[in-house]
């Protein structure tokens, strides 16, 4: 029987732990995935701590798919024109965060109750955390990530991921995460992914490639020409925060915008009104209670 040979069920046709993790309605509660887009550089973003927050449960395959969808929803893509084409400048490298998420779910310690894999996105970085340190007890920050041998805490789960094409058996995950970054336009040593671990946890830190980097670009998928030409740099930065909020919320008013921007209500109101005049946002309602939204 294939499922028995794969280690997903035992001889009594009962799900093994690996089989339960791969089941559509996984009964292992601590296998959940917590995803948060924080407002700022840490978890204390002010009046509005989180811009997006969701919890996923179910098969580890669905966790990979939902986790990647969350990351894509909360990342922006800049681009610049070149001869007869354009160069894309993503905030995060898909190959790198895919590898980090798969590794987190494949190698986490599922015996640690009350803890889950976390994706935390800040303005300047993304962190993917998993319970359980290195299987051999070493600290990853003390080792060369390119020479770490493959040690699988959950061999059955890792074998299934390998058969599905999600990961390889030869232990090249750390190298893939780093090399994915090295070919990006804004990459330098300060943008190199890093790893940290102790006895209890493992975290991959992937810098935002576009954070705090001067850019000469002529376009942006989240910025219209009217924003680029008619708004100051500060206004454009604040408008990006508002547009990001509207990616996951239907509407916004001056009060909410002021909390997001950590500015006075009248400042937020002026910016929203300007955005409406530039046709970036639509609005309805009276002046004091006006609500803004994107079409």
From TrEMBL:
Xref: InterPro entries: RecG_C_sf
Protein name, as recorded: Uncharacterized protein
């Amino acid at each position: 029987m294939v499922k028995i040979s794969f280690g997903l069920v035992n001889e009594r046709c009962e799900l093994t732990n690996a089989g339960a993790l791969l089941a559509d309605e996984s009964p292992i509660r601590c296998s959940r995935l917590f995803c948060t887009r924080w407002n700022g550089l840490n978890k204390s973003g002010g009046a509005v701590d989180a811009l997006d927050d969701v919890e996923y449960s179910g098969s580890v395959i669905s966790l990979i798919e939902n986790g990647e969808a969350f990351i894509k929803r909360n990342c922006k893509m800049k681009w610049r024109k070149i001869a007869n084409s354009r160069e894309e400048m993503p905030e995060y490298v898909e190959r790198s965060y895919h590898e980090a998420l798969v590794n987190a779910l494949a190698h986490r310690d599922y015996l640690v109750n009350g803890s889950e894999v976390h994706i935390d996105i800040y303005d300047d970085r993304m962190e993917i955390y998993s319970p359980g340190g290195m299987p051999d007890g070493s600290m990853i920050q003390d080792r060369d990530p390119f020479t770490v041998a493959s040690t699988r805490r959950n061999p059955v789960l890792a074998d299934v991921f390998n058969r599905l094409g999600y990961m390889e058996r030869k232990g090249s995950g750390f190298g893939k995460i780093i090399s994915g970054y090295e070919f990006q336009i804004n990459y330098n040593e300060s943008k190199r992914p890093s790893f940290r671990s102790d006895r209890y946890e493992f975290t991959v830190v992937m810098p935002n490639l576009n954070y705090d980097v001067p850019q000469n670009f002529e376009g942006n998928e989240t910025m219209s020409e009217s924003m680029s030409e008619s708004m100051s740099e500060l206004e454009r930065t604040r408008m990006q925060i508002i547009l990001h909020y509207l990616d996951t919320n239907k509407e916004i008013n001056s009060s909410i915008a002021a909390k997001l921007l950590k500015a006075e209500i009248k400042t937020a109101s002026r910016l929203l009104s300007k955005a409406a005049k530039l046709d970036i946002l639509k609005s309805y309602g009276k002046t004091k209670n006006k609500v803004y939204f994107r079409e």
